[in-house]
Design a protein that fits this description.
Structural class: mainly beta
Strand order of the largest sheet: 8-7-13-14-20-19
Order of helices and strands: HEEEEEEEEEEEEHEEEEEEEEE
Number of helices: 2
Distance between the termini: 25 Å
Radius of gyration: 20 Å
Largest sheet: 6 strands, mixed
Helix content: under 10%
Number of domains: 1
Shape: globular
Number of strands: 21
Strand content: 15-25%
């Protein structure tokens, strides 16, 4: 006699299979030359950063300007191949009235043209409400020394600090280092910022995020993986306003070498969320993965999260500023825009679908 969860699990298995097939089609659509590159060697990197009217345009072949790790490897079966990226973002970004979760999109792009994608699509027991964290070490995703790996189709992307870029720029901690731009146009820096955000002469120190581990234990199976909240899953964390230097998007307003008058900017931190899971501004469509045919980064533009045809979907984790500058508290939950209750179909940031280890 089948259990009540059997139809549910079968449905999820079919969804995972469908998304895996979609990923292969999506990656193939953006593969530039179909050529696979040798492991552990400097590649034929190409990138251009130009200004087109009110937009910054970053075009690249997706190959890093530093030596990547060896791919395939034990945790990642992919082989790097060139892409055809064409990212656009506002030259003068504006802070939006609401936060936008960055699921189904690249959060940003590094100055070498390689995308930033903080999330994964590896789930506990096939349940997308419990998404594994790439930087937690709980599962082996084959990340290299620059915290990057490869998706199906050869798409190389960063999950954390691109140490290869940092080394090429002369190392970290001497000054604020610009390493990329988010989809909303705001700059992305390494973890070092000024102690006084509006004083460029104040000391540099590592920024502390305001996301904290939840207390207690996760729901027990079949509703969750059980055990103590320890950072294995995205949902293990909650935003605690004022507990760190940064806001919910892992950023703040302050002066930087490139913006001496001050600007909102993001940080890549040592601890969760590492890379932002929300945009403070309005993301450009070129970062959003709409799906084949022709969608996603570098292809036909699809709408950014929260800006589909018709009224915006009611994101559980969206906040609007209150009059007078205060903010409504965000309901507790995962910082990737997922909702409780009936799980959404597998999707997200496009990681390879390999069966995750079971606890």
């Amino acid at each position: 006699m089948s259990s009540p969860r059997t139809p549910f699990l079968l449905t999820h298995m079919l969804r995972v299979l469908c998304v895996a097939l979609w990923l292969l089609a999506f990656s193939a659509a953006h593969a530039h030359d179909g050529k696979h590159y040798p492991a552990g060697k400097l590649l034929d990197h190409k990138v251009s950063i130009t200004i087109d009217g009110n937009e910054r345009v970053i075009k690249s072949n997706g190959l890093p300007d530093h030596v990547p790790g060896v791919f395939p490897n034990r945790g990642n079966p992919g082989t790097i191949s060139a892409q055809d990226w064409n990212f656009r973002m506002p030259l003068k970004p504006q802070i939006s009235e609401r936060l936008r979760p960055s699921q189904h999109a690249s959060f940003g792009v590094a100055i070498n043209g390689v995308p930033f994608e903080p999330g994964t699509a590896e789930f506990w027991n096939g349940d997308p409400q419990w998404k594994y964290e790439a930087m937690s070490g709980a599962i082996d995703l084959g990340l290299d020394q620059s915290h990057a790996h490869v998706q199906p189709g050869g798409l190389y992307h960063y999950h954390g600090l691109p140490t290869g870029i940092v080394e090429r720029l002369g190392g970290d901690g001497k000054k604020m280092l610009l390493v990329g731009y988010a989809a909303d146009g705001f700059p992305i820096y390494t973890s070092f910022g000024h102690a006084d955000p509006m004083n460029a002469k104040s000391a540099l120190r590592k920024m502390k995020p305001s996301w904290q581990l939840k207390k207690g234990e996760r729901p027990s199976p079949p509703d969750g993986p059980g055990r103590k909240y320890d950072g294995t899953y995205t949902q293990d964390y909650e935003y605690v306003k004022g507990s760190g230097d940064l806001d919910e998007c892992n950023g703040r307003i302050g002066v930087t070498p490139e913006y001496p008058d001050g600007i909102y900017h993001y940080y890549i931190t040592d601890t969760f969320p590492v890379l932002g899971r929300y945009w403070r501004g309005t993301p450009d469509h070129s970062f959003f993965k709409k799906g084949p045919p022709g969608g996603g980064p570098g292809g036909r533009r699809g709408p950014p999260p929260g800006e589909r045809d018709g009224p915006p979907p009611p994101f559980d984790h969206e906040r609007r500023p209150r009059e007078g500058g205060g903010e409504r508290a965000r309901p507790e939950g995962p910082p990737n825009g997922e909702r409780r209750g009936r799980p959404r179909p597998p999707g997200g940031e496009g990681e390879e679908r390999r069966p995750p280890p079971r606890n």
